[in-house]
Amino acid sequence: MEEILATIAIALAATIFIVLSFSIYLTIRIFTGKFIRNKAYSPVHATVFDLLFHSDELYDYQTELARKKPTFRFLSPGQSEIFTADARNVEHILKTRFENYTKGHSSRENLADLLGRGIFAVDGDKWRQQRKLASFEFSTRVLRDFSCSVFRTNACKLVGFVSEFALSGKSFDAQDMLMRYTLESIFKVGFGVELKCLDEFSKEGEEFRACNVATSLRFIDPLWKLKRFLNIGSQARLKKSIDTTDKFVYRLITTKRKELAKEQNTAVTDDILSRFLVESEKDPENMNDKYLRDIILNFMIAGKDTTAASLSWFLYMLCKNPLVQEKILQEIRGVTSSHERTTDVNSFVENINEEALDRMQYLHAALSETLRLYPPVPVDMRCAENDDILADGHRVKRGDNVYYMAYAMGRMTYVWGQDAEEFKPERWLKDGVFQPESPFKFISFHAGPRICLGKDFAYRQMKIVSMVLLHFFRFKMADEKSNVRYKRMLTLHIEGGLHLHAIPRTSKRKVRVKKQKAKKAMEEILATISIALAVTIFIVLSFSIYLTIRIFTGKSRNDKEYSPVHATIFDLFFHNDKLYEYQTEIARKKPTYRFLSPGQSEIFTADPRNVEHILKTRFDNYSKGDNGRENLGDLLGHGIFTVDGEKWRQQRKLASFEFSTRVLRDFSCSVFRTNACKLVGVVSEFALSGKSFDAQEMFMRYALESIFKVGFGVELKCLDEYSKEGEEFMEAFDEGNVATSFRYIDPLWKLKRFLNIGSQSRLKKCIDTIDKFVYKLITTKREELAEEQNTAVREDILSRFLVVNEKDPEKMNDKYLRDIILNFMVAGKDTAAASLSWFMYMLFKNPLVQERIVQEIREVTSSDERTTDVNGFAKSISEEALNKMHYLHAALSETLRLYPIVPLNMRCAENDDILADGHRVKRGDNVYYMAYAMGRMTYIWGQDAEEFKPERWLKDGVFQPESPFKFISFHGGPRICLGKDFAYRQMKIVSMVLLHFFRLKMADEKSNVRYKRMLTLHIEGGLHLHAIPRTSI
């Protein structure tokens, strides 16, 4: 212990020394040689750390300073950071003394990881070379015509996208939509690729946006290099995003190069990348793939983010200024000779030619006014290569960075007049004609030799989109009181998106899409459909005959030695919604009966003697069977619920040892108590507000939270807050459960899987989501174990399995561990949550039972209605207290008798056999034991079998267990549930905590509660309850 304390003390002292030394070093670097009080230099406002503290409102902060001092300084280590809103200074650094002001080493470093040696990140000969090449490309008529064609095509898609929201009355995120539009357009124009991101999610676009945010942060974060070195925070995220982006871009270059090599068509050279690739063949050494990658990403910054962000702010301005919106509409209709009856999107778009675009003077002014107030690049920077004097007389030292603040300049009265902060398109017009301003005053497109080459390109794109959208829709804010804010990136985005409502302007409710099918094409389609229909009918008839032969041959249907035949397996399919009641009704007349299916009989039994026979007496003759393994295999893999023989024995032995440890029992109870306390917090909010809540959904979250902590050592926090990852996993797991359950009554499920349709298509998607989540969990847990930061990490079951995995990594690989996790999930999540839901339903239906349990809780825990401390009460639920809760144990068991968590289970006969009731079974037959039906049989439980009666389990107040082959909820024989005690402990703890603090009743007492068909018995539509506080909590 002394050694450990000494080590900690030394480490702490060393850390303090390093931090102090670094602080002193920074202080010296910041304050020396800066001429802080010399009036020849611009006034000092603060150190650069001040910018970091104002990160969220940076541009407004700079604007406020610029109102008092048009040029000012922040001190940083090594140099001054000079900020100016003076148009004279902007002209000085961008034109007059252009050669003296470069991107600078600092800026190049900030941008290099993302933009490499692209045109936005370089100076000198490299810049001149790229500028010359790009200048030629942007001046070609081919590119102009090609780009306008792409902009029009994608604008038509936008109308279809928006019209869906307009017709439904729902709001949509216009910024996200425009980001997708510009990404789609820029990839087509720039690289000849159709991403189709207007139709679906684009991962590449999201990763590029993440790169943008992290790179932007470097300009105000003096510690970004340290973060990059340690690979933490924003710089770790940037590295991952750049890796993904690079992989995509290099693949794009390779594909495009192959297309050019094939020379399949001439249109492939319309796009800019193809034209650069042609140029690269002349100089392959300099214009290599890395060079082309940098060109692509710089072009992306120029063409995607700037246009999308500008259009987003433009629509925001139109919502704030509806008269401007209407004035633009009138101009559109005047220029295009359209009106509200012009409903054909494609025809309207064809009218937007070069002449029409040039005549849109007021729209051009409104777009420019938006760019004045919300410039795409709100602040830009140049570095002084030599000492200099700015146009306003302030000195600049070599190495100083000079920032020109476009966002602030647009709001300066000394630049734009007293109405500078008003949105006023008229300031750009004279006699209705647009009048451009000095590029050093209106700096949105840069100025001087580096003025933006794509300026006209951008205006054309924004005009086309604006004209199409505003002709067909009127826009307003979804929440007119919302406070729109910007997000700090290299380009000016709207924080949280721009949520709008679109109201159709045209006379038809839905915009017509131009007809693309002529009469001849329709005839071809009808002929194809006829042939397909004939082939389908032939296949269906052939398959039906085949099924009939397979179903009815070799089944000894009239032989009394075999159980009586009720119907074919298709009969179950038609009774899917009330399957268990249907089976129960049959079992009342025939305890054992058959359904015929292709290849074998499906035998159903509610006879406890038969259950004992297949689960214990002839255990080795009854396996999961090929059918059972196939049904469950895609979801549960080779887990303990799907395998037999050696694989089952191996997992059973390992799991049996884990479940028998005191460590797991103590750890799990601690987790159950902690999460039960959280449940009280959740329920109390509803109780105090008088609102109802879905108890089943709440229990699912509770069980998921608990099982992930106990089973995998992970806190999902799905009780405290919304967990997107946890929600997606839970939804996928539940839907996968439903689709897997459906396989037992759907004889065509294999065909559906092959064709990837219906329930089997949904199952495939669910499993992809599940696998992604689970494999990430395994990787994370393995990394935690490798670090061995604490010993508590080994309390959970997955960690303990991973330790065993190290002894036999070949057999216990990630796939094996994935299967263990999902089987454990079925055992631990759904069972506990569903059982507790049915239990609460039973307590509502039997209020006297609910009150009797409350009395038992208070007696055992020595509590009363004055016991309001949730944590204190939970701690009183010890192992001894749980063991004394006999009536609660009986009520839970009675619930499980009537609503068994697995209502139907199956075994397959490996060889011919005779059941305990005398009926023969053929090899390959499946034998189902019906737990749901058994709980309702008078020949098992007496005449009161369908009554909820906890007393049937008690003798002199003490719980009396029943035969596991009669009460089959926890299975029986060698495969009896290992987690039985684990489950009872969890259910008791939750029940005791909730029932002590609340009385529960149905939200709608007349509602008809039904089950949902899954592998486990859930309540259809959830269980909606009201909670009435019992204590003063």
TrEMBL record:
TM annotation in the entry: 6-28, 525-549
Keywords of the record: Heme, Iron, Membrane, Metal-binding, Monooxygenase, Oxidoreductase, Transmembrane, Transmembrane helix
Gene3D superfamilies: Cytochrome P450
Cofactor(s) the protein needs: heme
PROSITE patterns in alphabetical order: CYTOCHROME_P450 (PS00086)
Keyword Iron: yes
Keyword Ubl conjugation among UniProt keywords: no
Cited InterPro entries: Cyt_P450, Cyt_P450_CS, Cyt_P450_E_grp-I, Cyt_P450_sf
Family the UniProt entry places it in: Belongs to the cytochrome P450 family.
Protein's UniProt name: Cytochrome P450
Organism: Brassica rapa subsp. trilocularis
Lineage: Eukaryota, Viridiplantae, Streptophyta, Embryophyta, Tracheophyta
